[in-house]
Each structure stands twice: as structure tokens, then as C-alpha cells.
Amino acid sequence: MRKPILIICGVLVLAVAAFLLFGRDGTPGDTSPEAGFARDMATHHAQAVDMAFIIRDKGPAREIRSLAFDIINTQSNQRGMFQGWLQQWKLNQATDQRPMAWMSGHGHGATPAATPGVTPGVMPGMASADELTKLKQAQGTQAEVLFLQLMIRHHEGGVQMAEGLLKLSTRSEVVSMAQKIVGGQSGEIKLMTELLKQRGAQPYPSMLKSQ
């Protein structure tokens, strides 16, 4: 009788795992890469929007103000989509899982400590509380340079997260959004790097292998 019981237990374990990953009706489950990406990227975008508001309110040069406006609008809209997906999938906006847990064990991001600027359980590219304080206190060109340096690193982290999702998911709307993030933020990284050069400054060491 032991063997049938073990088989039944194994089936139940697989069923629970499938529910967590895929949900009741084939939508992403609570521990799926799609749900983790949506939650973490919503938080990641929220900080980018906050930083863009900080620099915008300092009356920066026209090109910095325009960049900040684009980041506020684009990432606020995308954040709303992430939250909408979670609602559509009948999942909570928050979770007890550590940040980036959705990427663990899948090769990409499994050893984040080996990547410059990435700490286990921390979303890549996020500015620290001290860095945000410095940005709030800075003025003039110093504020513009610090904003660009922080936002380039922030965008690199967003690209890392989006590329990680592309390795783990085939769900069309999530894949399409991840591709937009890779393309859009990569383009803004190039723009911000040029803006830094115009101010006699350089980005922080890149987190991206291709750069």
C-alpha cells in the first residue's frame, strides 16, 4: 500500500506547484516569473518616477526636464499595467517572497552577488536611501549629473530584469512589455550617457555585459 500512497502524495505536490505557477485557469500563479516580474518591476518603476520628479522640480536644463517628463509618463503608465495584470490574474499586489525570487534557480540571476551592483534579494539598479538624499540635496549641474548616473544604473537594472523575464516566460503581453523595456531603456541609457559627457562626467561602472 505504500507505493500508491507515495504516488498520490507526489501527484498532490505537483498539483500544488502547478497552481502556484499557473493559477486556476492557466493564468500566472503567485510564484510565477510573470507575477514576480510584475510586482518587482512596479516597485522598480516607482523609484524611477520618484527620482524623475525630484530632478524635474529643481528646474534643470531643458533636455533633462524633457527626459524626466518622459520617464514619469512612460514608467507610470507601465506600472499601472503591471498592477492591472496582477488584478486580472487575481493575485495580491504584495507578496512575502523576497525581491527577485522569481529569477532564482533559472540560471539568469541565480548568483546575483557575482554581478556588479546586484545584491541577493535586492532589485538591481535601485538607488539607496543615502543616494536619494544626496539627489534631493544637490543643486544645479551637480544634481543633473547625479540624477543621470543614478538613472543610468537604474535603467541597467530594469534591462537586466526584463531580459531575465524573457528567458523564463512565453506569455505574450508580458514578453511584449519586457521587450519594450529593454529597447526603450537601452535607448535612454545611450541618451543619458551622452548628456553626462556634455557635463564632463561619466556613468557608474556598467552592470550590463554588453556595455
Indicate the topology.
Layout: H1 2-22, H2 33-56, H3 62-88, H4 129-137, H5 140-166, H6 172-198
Short description:
The chain is mainly α and 211 residues long. The protein has helices spanning 2-22, 33-56, 62-88, 129-137, 140-166, 172-198.
Mean pLDDT: 85
Number of helices: 6
The class by helix and strand makeup works out as mainly alpha
How large is the share of residues in beta strands? under 5%
Distance between the termini: 60 Å
Q: How does the overall form come out from the CA principal axes?
A: elongated
Radius of gyration: 20 Å
Portion of residues in helices?
Answer: 55-70%
Reported for the largest beta sheet, the result is:
none
Low-confidence stretches: 3-22, 105-118
- The ordered H/E elements are HHHHHH
Number of strands: 0
Structure characterization notes:
α2 packs antiparallel against α5 and α4 packs antiparallel against α5 (140-166). By secondary structure, the chain is mostly helical. The longest helix is centred in the middle third of the chain and has 27 residues, at 62-88. The protein is 64% helix and 0% strand. The chain has six helices and no strands. The protein is elongated, with a radius of gyration of 20 Å.
